[in-house]
Structure to design on (252 residues):
């Protein structure tokens, strides 16, 4: 069926195109270096050689050029080819950690998809690993969920619930469930999760700050200000305090 006229087409971040564009900006010496490394992929007639070539390319983009996307892309390629739980998990966590601060919607979709794929492959190798399931759930919530996809948020919540059903004291899972509640507008459920975390870990700054955010979203200014001030004391950083003071000022 043809798409409806005027329907919005979702843009896709093309990492290969991005790498090609970045290569055009390299100094001649580095351009020669990367060409040699790329030739190592096609020359590699066994998986071990290809993995080594991908790892060297990842290191080049991380250390010599300091651009995240090509680095993560080649780490992902190496991990998928190696197919070990350790390397799949490492690559997945690189993407997950980075996507939490991503503001470009196209890149966010790409990073989320990569992280989910890597975590899913690791979960297949070790289905009983709670940390992997928390990682997978986090990708849905911090990635697609944060960008306004309620279905993705629910997928993430289901993954995390499978962990807390087995271990209700898993504070990593409780924490991300709280975030899931916040991004989906289920503020009371979010508060319930964050309260559990703060009770178990009183110095968990992230949980305290999220508590303040939830109270602010609910319109409970007094509680929001109280928890923002607690987060300030825990962080004890001038820049952070200034940011929080701006939030408190906006609430008042």
């Amino acid at each position: 069926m043809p798409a409806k006229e005027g329907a919005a087409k979702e843009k896709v971040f093309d990492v290969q195109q991005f790498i090609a564009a970045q290569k055009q900006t390299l100094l001649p010496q580095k351009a020669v270096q990367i060409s040699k490394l790329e030739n190592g992929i096609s020359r590699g007639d066994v998986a071990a050689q290809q993995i080594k070539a991908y790892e060297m390319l990842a290191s080049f983009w991380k250390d010599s050029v300091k651009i995240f996307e090509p680095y993560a892309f080649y780490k992902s390629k190496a991990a998928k080819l190696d197919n070990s739980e350790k390397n799949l998990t490492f690559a997945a966590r690189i993407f997950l950690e980075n996507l939490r601060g991503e503001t470009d919607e196209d890149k966010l979709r790409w990073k989320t998809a990569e992280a989910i794929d890597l975590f899913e492959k690791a979960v297949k190798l070790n289905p009983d690993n709670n940390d992997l399931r928390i990682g997978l759930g986090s990708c849905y919530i911090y990635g697609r969920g944060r960008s306004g996809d309620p279905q993705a948020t629910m997928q993430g919540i289901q993954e995390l619930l499978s962990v807390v059903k087995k271990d209700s004291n898993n504070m990593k899972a409780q924490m991300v469930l709280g975030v899931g509640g916040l991004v989906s507008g289920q503020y009371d459920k979010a508060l319930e999760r964050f309260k559990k975390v703060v009770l178990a870990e009183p110095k968990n700054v992230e949980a305290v700050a999220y508590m303040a955010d939830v109270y602010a979203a609910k319109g409970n200014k007094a509680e929001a200000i109280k928890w923002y001030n607690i987060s300030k004391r825990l962080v004890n950083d001038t820049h952070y305090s200034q940011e929080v003071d701006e939030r408190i000022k906006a609430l008042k």
